[in-house]
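We were asked to recover a plausible sequence for a given structure. The inputs and outputs are reproduced exactly as logged, with field labels preserved.

PROBLEM: sequence recovery
POSITIONS: 475
GIVEN STRUCTURE:
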């Protein structure tokens, strides 16, 4: 039920209200803070609207608190004050903005917009659930101002826009992505007229900066069930604008008796599976990309059916260009590449014979990411046949058990060759050179193949026995 009054517990907001009273300014909390408060969540980002000059008001709040770390965004007419963590609680982040008549767009390059009333300001926000204000002035502290019935929308769990959706999206097309993000994050539905506008205006996302789009995309990926947001993006035709490689996963081809399953739907299932057990957004990204090269490698083989040979390797090579284009942090490329490249390997063991040497190789190649690889692999079991799933999971558990045994013995995750580079150089009379690496690899291969045990003396003996051949065979 819609409330007239909210019990705001944050004492700082009362002080801010009194300060506004002294200056004769009307001030309110708005946006995500109010929305999440009404949804019973704890929030640390607080958006404060002052009817007047938001930056100046931010400055007086910083003065009142004896703070010198207020950051001003002159172009946007906003100010931000980050407070420190306290007693294990994350610090509050206060953002000040003046009420505006024009669109509220934090990243607009447009200079300061025209000063407006609170109602003007709320009308230019993205969704009605984000356009609820609560007064901070002492006379009506905690009073809710909700001209667009945002509280009703919160109860119905629906995303509507305060104005005609075409106008709201035209003000800032990023809001199309935000609609999918909030739907996925909060498990809300998008009102039909809003969805239609998103559908017809999706191409407008091309004028929005990649950083802002990727930020929303990662929030979709981080949501409890990312398939909700991705499916909406797909249904609205937005995914081909934002993430064309993922759009290409959709579709099924039928040839005689053979059909291949829709890789997009399969990927969504894998993504939801993995999201039940991890909040690591890069592991989720690996799940999204694990079959990304299937469309490129798809071939029909007579008598066999559809094949996707090499999709794991080609897929791994697609990761970096995707990260570059989407301006995602490149430090995670190696991890995602590795998981995409290796995603079939554990299953190859599950389906085949679990030899010590194959297990060792997998542990060696995956290194410290082995657990994440196994999580991805388990999430990749999506057959609709429960008996088959059961059987594959049982085999999978056997592989995991075997891996534990092998790992406990030789600690492959953090494995170092038992004969170090210096010793190789001394024994073989070499200077630092490529040959040292070649000899080291020869030892590693012999250990992985089980030719020699993972021990120093055996490795040294092996080195002595092969060094002539290896060095003599070098170009
Ligand atoms: N806003 C908007 N249009 C945008 C971005 C933001 O109208 N393109 C408004 C909304 O009222 C929003 C508020 O600015 O609630 C704050 O924006 P932001 O911090 O990005 O989102 P929150 O709603 O606070 O949600 P979250 O913290 O989960 O990102």
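RECOVERED SEQUENCE:
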């Amino acid at each position: 039920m819609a409330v007239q009054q909210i019990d705001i517990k944050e004492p700082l907001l009362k002080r801010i209200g009194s300060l506004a009273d002294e200056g004769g300014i009307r001030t309110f909390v708005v946006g995500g803070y109010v929305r999440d408060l009404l949804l019973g969540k704890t929030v640390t980002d607080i958006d404060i609207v002052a009817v007047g000059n938001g930056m100046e008001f931010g400055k007086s709040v910083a003065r009142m608190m004896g703070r010198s770390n207020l950051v001003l965004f002159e172009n946007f007419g906003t100010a931000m004050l980050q407070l420190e963590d306290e007693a294990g609680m994350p610090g509050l982040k206060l953002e000040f903005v003046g009420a505006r008549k024009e669109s509220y767009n934090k990243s607009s390059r447009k200079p300061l917009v025209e000063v407006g009333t609170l109602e003007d300001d709320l009308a230019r926000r993205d969704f009605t659930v984000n356009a609820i204000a609560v007064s901070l002035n002492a006379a009506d502290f905690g009073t809710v101002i909700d001209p667009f019935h945002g509280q009703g929308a919160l109860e119905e769990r629906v995303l509507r826009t305060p104005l005609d959706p075409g106008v709201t999206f035209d003000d800032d097309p990023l809001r199309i992505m935000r609609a999918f993000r909030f739907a996925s994050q909060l498990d809300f539905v998008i009102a039909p007229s809003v969805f239609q506008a998103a559908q017809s205006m999706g191409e407008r996302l091309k004028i929005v900066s990649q950083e802002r789009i990727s930020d929303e995309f990662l929030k979709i990926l981080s949501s409890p069930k990312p398939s909700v947001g991705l499916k909406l993006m797909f249904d609205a035709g937005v995914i081909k604008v934002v993430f064309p490689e993922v759009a290409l996963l959709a579709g099924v081809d039928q040839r005689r008796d053979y059909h291949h399953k829709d890789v997009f739907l399969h990927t969504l299932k894998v993504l939801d599976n993995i999201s039940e057990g991890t909040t690591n957004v890069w592991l989720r990204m690996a799940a999204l990309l694990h079959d990304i090269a299937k469309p490129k490698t798809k071939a029909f083989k007579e008598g066999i059916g559809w094949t996707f040979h090499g999709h794991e390797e080609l897929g791994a090579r697609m990761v970096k260009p995707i990260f570059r284009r989407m301006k995602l942090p490149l430090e995670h490329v190696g991890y995602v590449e590795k998981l995409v490249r290796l995603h079939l390997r554990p299953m190859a063991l599950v389906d085949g014979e679990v030899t010590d040497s194959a297990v060792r190789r997998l542990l060696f190649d995956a290194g410290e990411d082995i657990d994440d690889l196994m999580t991805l692999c388990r999430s990749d079991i999506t057959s609709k046949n429960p008996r088959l799933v059961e059987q594959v999971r049982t085999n999978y558990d056997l592989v995991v058990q075997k891996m534990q045994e092998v790992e406990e013995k030789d600690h492959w995750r953090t494995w170092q060759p038992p004969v170090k580079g210096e010793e190789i150089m001394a024994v073989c009379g070499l200077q630092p050179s490529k040959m040292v690496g070649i000899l080291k690899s020869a030892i590693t291969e012999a250990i992985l193949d089980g030719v020699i045990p993972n021990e120093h003396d055996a490795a040294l003996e092996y080195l002595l026995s092969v060094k002539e051949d290896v060095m003599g065979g070098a170009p």
